[in-house]
């Protein structure tokens, strides 16, 4: 397994969400779960599974008659990697730039502001 989480496409995220909900799953189970949410063909879903295996994001157990697929990274590891990639691409890697943009564009309730203040206070207390 690579040390850094490989880049996952938007469609691959859908496959990963199914696997994070419940795994190990067979290809047929992944297909069934995704066809309930999307209009993707089974071949498309199998291609996405194959890509994820090739990227070493998903492992395949070939010990049984029917292969099963399991995520090799947790959802939080993938989210962290995606957030870092987004921050680097869009905001030059600085959290402050992103937060300034967010605060200028979004209106927050008093409760949300209070929650953010508490989070920042907790973060500064830990450092």
Give a written overview of the molecule.
The protein is mainly alpha-helical. It has 6 helices and 3 strands. A 3-stranded antiparallel sheet has the order 1-3-2.
Quick overview of this protein structure:
With 127 residues, the protein is mainly alpha-helical. Helix content is 62%, strand content 8%. The two termini are 32 Å apart.
C-alpha geometry: elongated
Structural class computed from helices and strand pairing: mainly alpha
- Provide the helix percentage: 55-70%
| Nearest-integer average pLDDT | 91
Global Rg: 19 Å
Order of strands across the widest beta sheet? 1-3-2
Q: Beta-strand level of the residues, as a percent range?
A: 5-15%
Number of beta-strand segments? 3
The tally of helices reads 6
Terminal CA distance: 32 Å
Low-confidence stretches: none
Major sheet summary line: 3 strands, antiparallel
Task: Sketch the topology as an H/E string, one letter per element.
Answer: HEHHEEHHH
């Amino acid at each position: 397994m690579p040390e850094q989480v490989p880049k996952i496409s938007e469609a691959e995220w859908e496959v990963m969400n199914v696997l994070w909900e419940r795994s190990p799953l067979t290809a047929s189970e992944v297909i069934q779960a995704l066809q309930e949410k999307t209009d993707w063909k089974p071949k498309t879903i199998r291609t996405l599974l194959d890509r994820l295996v090739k990227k070493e994001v998903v492992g395949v157990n070939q010990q049984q008659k029917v292969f099963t697929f399991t995520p090799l990274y947790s959802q939080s590891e993938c989210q962290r990697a995606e957030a870092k990639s987004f921050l680097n691409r869009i905001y030059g890697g600085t959290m402050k730039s992103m937060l300034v943009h967010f605060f200028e564009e979004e209106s927050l309730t008093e409760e949300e502001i209070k929650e953010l203040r508490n989070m920042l206070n907790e973060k500064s207390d830990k450092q």
